[in-house]
Amino acid sequence: MLKKLLVGAMCFLAFSCKKTDSTTVTPSSNNPIFDISVLQNKFSSNVTVSIDGDYLVIKSNGIPDHKSPYFASTDSRYEAYNGTNTNFSLNPNRISEQSYVFKIPLKPTKASTSAATPLGPIGVSLNGVPFFNQYAANYQPLTNEINTLDQYLGHPQQTGQYHYHIEPTYLTGKYGKSVFLGVLLDGFPVYGPIENGKAVTNADLDNLHGHSHATTEFPNGIYHYHITETDPYLNGAGFYGTAGTLSR
């Protein structure tokens, strides 16, 4: 009997003292684990979305599902600029097909340190067009580059990657200004510039350009980014979570 008690006690101690795998994230009230699998069916039909282990995998060719003056003039998707910016200037680049594979954490958590967003894609919108951060080349302000944005506020860079730095007005016009518009590489969602019937301002958000509360997709609450009318437009000082990967 004593032997059995000793064995049981040793087993209990071995279990309770077992070292937690350092790669395992333990949820807490300060850093809960979210599940973004609910977003799988939110993207447009031209975007392929699947779950692969711990990742939401989003595949896109990066071609917008709207017209643009950045398609070749002989292309049926070409549309001359008809926006409101009287300073619009067509840049020399043209839209070309890409092969994006975004691997985004399925269960994102807050990172211990917020990494700065890179130049290039930092996330993906509902129609498969990438989000870029608030900088032009060499981390310069968007001041001049804004004048090259087409009527849907996107444009291509040197290798033909069409992208949005600011509000994707084709999407907000189609789905509304308060809806889910895409996700950043760290797994946290991006919402439009209206919330609870009023415009979101930078003062409503933290230094990463987001905040936490319930949304339509996440009724129990989640950290999320918002697009605003002023710099930094989409993301501030870096990712809230740990970024996944992008291959192309």
Structural description of this entry:
Residues 1-27 have low confidence and may be disordered. 35% of the residues are buried. The strands form 4 sheets. Strands 5-4-8-9-13-12 form a 6-stranded mixed sheet, with no helix packed on it. Strands 1-2-3-14 form a 4-stranded antiparallel sheet, with no helix packed on it. The chain has a two-stranded antiparallel sheet with strand order 6-7. The chain is built from 2 helices and 14 strands, in the order H-E-E-E-E-E-E-E-H-E-E-E-E-E-E-E. The longest helix has 15 residues, at 2-16. Helices cover 9% and strands 22% of the residues. By secondary structure, it is mainly beta. It has one domain.
Q: What percentage of residues falls in helices of 4 or more residues? A: under 10%
Count of beta strands: 14
User: Number of helical runs?
Assistant: 2
> What general form does the structure show?
globular
**Low-pLDDT residue spans:** 1-27
Secondary structure class reads mainly beta
**What kind of sheet is the major sheet?**
6 strands, mixed
Biggest sheet strand order reads 5-4-8-9-13-12
> Gap between N and C termini, in Å?
64 Å
Task: Let me know the average pLDDT.
Answer: 90
Q: From the alpha-carbon coordinates, what is the Rg to the nearest angstrom?
A: 22 Å
